[in-house]
Write a structure and sequence with these properties.
Strand order of the largest sheet: 3-4-1-11-8-7
Shape: elongated
Structural class: mainly beta
Oligomer: single chain
Helix content: 10-25%
Number of domains: 2
Mean pLDDT: 91
Distance between the termini: 73 Å
Strand content: 35-45%
Low-confidence stretches: none
Number of helices: 4
């Protein structure tokens, strides 16, 4: 039996600043369009990796020759993929529009792509979302693979997502009626919060509200630490941090931004 030789064509890695190591897991890339119809016939291997995939061709020829063969035989000029995401909170912790559902498209032919070293950073294009099951689409053209190829090495493409930043709202509920006339929030990152103001929760409970003066990026790890002080004495060490499971929207003067509310009992 002849041993099949597989040659790498290209790879895609996905990164997200929400995660400590920036590796974005949980995106699935599924062949779409004409590529979906012929991938099995041609024996092309799509290997999922921790944060993306690699594409391999069953050939001992050059990648250029193989892609030319694909084009001549099937009339295909690109590899197309549907992108789905497993984490339902992805849309909350990713910097996407707040007021509408969008899908993302990535193309190797986009003139706004950037080259960093030997990697091509794919520029995201926002589109109105038509299929609620799809995050977006990826289009990798043969011409771009050949143009970027160096010594027949696989072409590394990168998709990079930016984390959403929110204004943090801390609601402090004074359950013991203790005097709280010197409240402030201390941060190890120098992030400032407003002085406390009186607030009433939807259930009628009274609280003291303190809001961050800047938008703070969400994270899945303890990136920031906040302590609550009263008259310069720490009364709560390590306040709860924002979660992407609860995202609100605030508006003022025609602009809007995301908010994260935390409720703390003292």
């Amino acid at each position: 039996m002849n041993q099949i030789t597989y040659k790498p064509i290209c790879s895609v890695q996905v990164f997200h600043s929400y995660f400590e190591n920036t590796l974005m897991r949980g995106l699935n890339f599924t062949p779409a369009g004409h590529f979906k119809e012929i991938i099995g016939q041609m024996g092309i291997v799509l290997k999922q990796t921790a944060n993306g995939f690699q594409l391999f061709a069953p050939t001992d020829e050059t990648v250029s020759s193989y892609l030319t063969q694909l084009n001549n035989t099937f009339g295909i000029t690109a590899f197309d993929f549907d992108i789905t995401v497993q984490d339902p909170l992805f849309y909350n912790y990713t910097d996407l529009p707040l007021d509408r559902m969008v899908s993302l498209s990535f193309s190797s032919a986009d003139t706004q792509n950037e080259t960093v070293g030997n990697q091509t950073i794919l520029h995201p294009s926002l589109n109105e979302r038509e299929d609620s099951n799809l995050l977006g689409k990826l289009h990798i053209a043969f011409d771009d693979i050949l143009a970027l190829a160096t010594n027949d090495a696989p072409i590394p493409f990168v998709i990079s997502f930016t984390v959403r930043a929110t204004q943090w709202y801390y609601y402090f509920i004074n359950t013991n009626s203790q005097p709280l006339d010197g409240l402030r929030i201390a941060s190890d990152a120098g992030i400032q919060f407003s002085d406390p103001i009186d607030a009433v929760l939807p259930n009628g409970t009274k609280a003291l509200l303190m809001t961050s003066n800047v938008l703070i990026p969400l994270s899945n790890y303890g990136k920031y630490r906040f302590d609550l002080l009263n008259n310069d004495k720490i009364i709560i060490k390590g306040l709860p941090t924002a979660s992407p499971s609860q995202i609100g929207i605030d508006k003022s003067d025609g602009s809007q931004w995301a908010t994260s509310s935390m409720y703390v009992y003292i």
